[in-house]
Amino acid sequence: MSATFMIEAMVVLALAIPGLTAFAQDKSEKQDPAKTEAKEAKPQVPAEPLITATLKDGIHFKSSDGNFDATLGGYIGIHYRVVAHRPEDNVRSSPDSWFIRQARPEFSGTVYKDFDFRLQLDFPSGNGNAVTGTLQDAYVGWRRYPELSFRIGQFKEPFGQEQTTPDRYLDFDERSLGDRFVPARDIGAMVYGKLFDGILGYEAGYFNGNGRGVVDSNKGKEVAGRVRVIPFAAAEDGFVLRNLRLGVAGTAGTVQKSSTNAFDSTSPDLAILYLDATAGTLDGPRKRLGGEVSWNAGPFGLRGEVWRRVDRIDNGAFDHERLATTAWNASASWLITGERKPLEARMVPDAPLDPPTGAWGALEVAFRVDRVRIGTAVFQTGVAAAAGNSNAATDYTLGLNWYLTRHLRISPNVVWEIFDDPILFATGRTDRHFFGGILRFQLEF
């Protein structure tokens, strides 16, 4: 065997060994599935969910996995109030003026689908007051099941149909006279839900009872609850009573040594101070009971509510004297341009403002009558002087709502206020009748 042959054989063998080794490994892996799977199973790094932003009703953020869904928005309400033949008394009436009624940025949404949150602030100039910033809503909740949801934080107590309707969806520029005496936002917790395919709804909460942004200073708390029934919710869409809603609500709590200044009463529309409480305290149980009705059919809407509140007064010889306050309101509205009236929701015109095409938005006319009466015990116990004050008032309001687009609304209101007794002003003038109005510009974003 020659040296040349041996060298050539060694070269061939050197080149063949790697191929034979790879073939053997491949055959071994095919014969052992576990090794094949181990080789192919490489760790996968999960992709981060993408967040998209869209513009429609605010800035809407949503993650691709659906675990984050939120909206940044808000609204602004600008008012101009005028009172005909206004008394020259800046304590019991306010000068004709422009003011920022609401300036409310808000951020709300859901996290991991089942948890919701809401944060709303307000920066109004108010009714002749200095500019202040206030916390309106600040809550978190859990709402996985429509039948049982939970909320904790600061939000509105479930009492008062008009009060629990957001400002931006009211048919009028201001709420009625009696709204002064219903609970609004408070700090607490609530369970709520809907049963029987939305026919029955309920809310039940436990609150401080001191109002918005107030840490409780005593052990007295307030419970509140409401039940609503939409008896024909399952009916066909064209059924005339399909959107009829009935409700009852109540609150029960304890007030401890609170000032009767809480009974200072100013009319929401024309800002007339008609009852000036100066003495005594509220001390003892406070109870409310109310009923409500709402019905929409096509472009028409009817709403009404009635309630009664009972407090206890301490003032000198009067110990735990009962003071009852009653109120009611009724209103009707008609969308002249024919759109369907939404229930406590955004009004979207069929033809948003576009003059070149002859589109002018939606037009609505509305009328409301409302009354409040504070019991005569407010005078008999000396909480307020009978002379120059009135314990009862009635309002008549005619409103026009021009919805230029889904975001912009202009609403002039004409108001006639009548007080049961003459109001005494600083100039010595007394009057029972006041006429005026409000012009509101509203922008939602």
Mean model confidence by pLDDT: 89
Structural class: mainly beta
Number of discrete domains? 1
Shape: globular
Major beta sheet summary: 16 strands, antiparallel, barrel
Helix amount, in percent? Answer: 10-25%
CATH superfamily: Porin
- The CATH class name reads Mainly Beta
Oligomer: single chain
- What Rg is obtained from the alpha carbons, in whole angstroms? 33 Å
Structural description of this entry:
The chain has 445 residues and is mainly beta. It has a single domain (62-444), classed as Beta Barrel (Porin), CATH 2.40.160. Helices cover 10% and strands 51% of the residues. The protein has helices at 3-31, 33-40, 161-164, 377-380; strands at 51-56, 58-63, 68-83, 97-111, 115-122, 134-145, 148-156, 185-195, 200-207, 222-229, 245-259, 265-266, 273-275, 281-297, 300-315, 318-335, 362-374, 392-403, 408-424, 430-444. The strands form 2 sheets. It has a 16-stranded antiparallel barrel with strand order 3-4-5-6-7-8-9-10-11-14-15-16-17-18-19-20. Strands 12-13 form a two-stranded antiparallel sheet. The model is unreliable at 1-31 (pLDDT under 50).
Brief overview, please?
This protein is mostly beta strands and 445 residues long. The protein is built from four helices and 20 strands. It has a 16-stranded antiparallel beta barrel. It has a two-stranded antiparallel ribbon with strand order 12-13.
Helix-strand layout with pairing:
Layout (H helix, E strand, L loop, with lengths): L2 H29 L1 H8 L10 E6 L1 E6 L4 E16 L13 E15 L3 E8 L11 E12 L2 E9 L4 H4 L20 E11 L4 E8 L14 E8 L15 E15 L5 E2 L6 E3 L5 E17 L2 E16 L2 E18 L26 E13 L2 H4 L11 E12 L4 E17 L5 E15 L1
Antiparallel strand pairs: 1-2, 2-3, 3-4, 3-20, 4-5, 5-6, 6-7, 7-8, 8-9, 9-10, 10-11, 11-14, 12-13, 14-15, 15-16, 16-17, 17-18, 18-19, 19-20
